[in-house]
Design brief:
The protein is of the alpha/beta class and 385 residues long. The protein has 2 domains: 134 residues, no CATH class; 243 residues, Metallo-dependent phosphatases (Purple Acid Phosphatase, chain A, domain 2, 4-Layer Sandwich). 46% of the residues lie in helices and 16% in strands. The protein has 14 helices and 12 strands. Strand 2, helix 6 and strand 3 form a beta-alpha-beta unit. It starts with a helix and ends with a strand.
């Protein structure tokens, strides 16, 4: 990404972020007693700045301090989001009441007390929601799909595929998280493991410091582990991320194909972020698979699920994607559903099957309220019609 683009992008992000926190402070001050107002302001400002400060600090000094700030800031992002949503709903009712009085007398007769009670209720509900969302991130589920691909796969009749996406390994999701994921994947006794992008979060440094990659080496499958780049590999530095994965027994496919056991192909596309962050160009799918025998089963990994017809037009049998997180924080899933043709789940279009995962990890806050973290198990059978 060019410097001017970075300045514009981060300028917009920080401006919006700052305005949201300013709005929360302004509305909160109307309900908080005078003796606690200074504490409230300082607390919100500290929480709001923590994530940014922690991310900057970890580039020069990875320590308990940087991790603490990132954790505080990450939780604040979720709290901030639900506070904003709650305040907007309250202000909407206030606007309606201004036009057509609907509030009962016990609210209007003591405005300050009503504000304090409302603030208390909102705070409790937000904290319960965030705490529940944090617990939910620990409750990884496995979904199983039985698929029949009407192609011969050499001598192979069945294939046990395990797919995961969006691990976002870094300061928040580290070695213990990955150990849990690895154990669940290995328990499925996969023939092949496919990781559909965003394996590494923005910064590789915490992954290296905590030796997270040693857990990747524990993944076990007959044909190995294959992965693709996601947008976060590009944000943090794609070459370093790919080298780290390769050094830890993960084969990264970058606009390339590999034939497995003379039976089927795995196709891996470069993430769309290649142009934005490096000025490069990812190959067209037709170009990538132009020299292979399409009579064999084709499994495609493409991190961002845009242009699904591309797979259909090129004879792909199964496309695996991630990226969307299904919004991660409810009700953002409704917005995500408007952006993507398939935001989450399984879909069949003629002979092409698609699965878009909501991810096993997540970005930013370790909170998930829109869906459960998931690992996908495809039990594929082959056979020409």
């Amino acid at each position: 990404m060019k410097l001017t683009q970075q300045i514009i992008f981060f300028g917009i992000v920080f401006t919006v972020y700052g305005l949201i926190n300013f709005y929360i402070i302004r509305r909160g001050l109307s309900a908080i007693p005078d003796s606690y107002k200074s504490l409230f302001i300082y607390s919100v400002v500290f929480a709001a700045v923590s994530f940014i400060a922690g991310r900057i600090l970890e580039n020069v000094w990875i320590s308990f301090v940087s991790e603490f700030l990132i954790w505080i800031g990450s939780f604040w992002i979720a709290i901030m989001f639900y506070l904003l949503l709650s305040i907007l709903i309250i202000d909407l009712f206030r606007l309606v009441n201004f036009i057509v009085p609907i509030f009962p007398a016990f609210i209007t007769e003591n405005i300050q007390k009503s504000r304090q009670i409302t603030a208390l209720i909102v705070s409790v509900l937000v904290l319960i929601t965030v705490a529940g969302g944090y617990i939910n991130t620990k409750m990884i589920i496995t979904k199983t799909y039985k698929i029949k691909i009407d192609k011969a796969a050499g001598e192979l009749k069945k294939l046990n595929v395990v797919m995961a996406s969006d691990l976002h390994l870094g300061a928040i999701l580290g070695r213990s998280f990955l150990n849990n994921v690895v154990q669940k994947i290995n328990a499925l006794q996969p023939d092949i493991i496919l990781l559909a992008g965003d394996i590494i979060d923005e910064d590789l440094a915490p992954v290296i410091k905590n030796n997270v990659g040693e857990e990747l080496k524990l993944l076990k499958s007959k044909y190995g582990v294959y992965a693709i780049t996601g947008n976060h590999e590009y944000i943090g530095g794609v070459e370093a991320a790919c080298k780290y994965l390769a050094d830890h027994k993960v084969n990264v496919l970058r606009d390339s194909t590999v034939m497995i056991d003379s039976s089927f192909y795995v196709v891996g596309r470069e993430d769309r972020s290649i142009r934005q962050f490096s000025g490069g160009r990812r190959k067209d799918l037709k170009e990538i698979i132009g020299g292979i025998d399409k009579s064999y089963p084709l499994i495609l990994m493409d991190h961002q699920p845009f242009g699904l017809n591309d797979a259909l037009d090129n004879g792909i049998d199964l496309q695996l994607s991630g990226h969307t997180h299904n919004g991660q924080l409810w009700p953002l899933n409704y917005i995500v559903e408007k952006i993507y043709e398939l935001a989450w789940g399984y879909k069949i279009n003629r002979n092409t099957r698609y699965y878009v995962s909501c991810g096993v990890g997540g970005w930013g806050p370790p909170i998930r309220t829109g869906s459960r973290p998931e690992i996908i198990n495809f039990k594929i059978s082959f056979g020409a019609r």
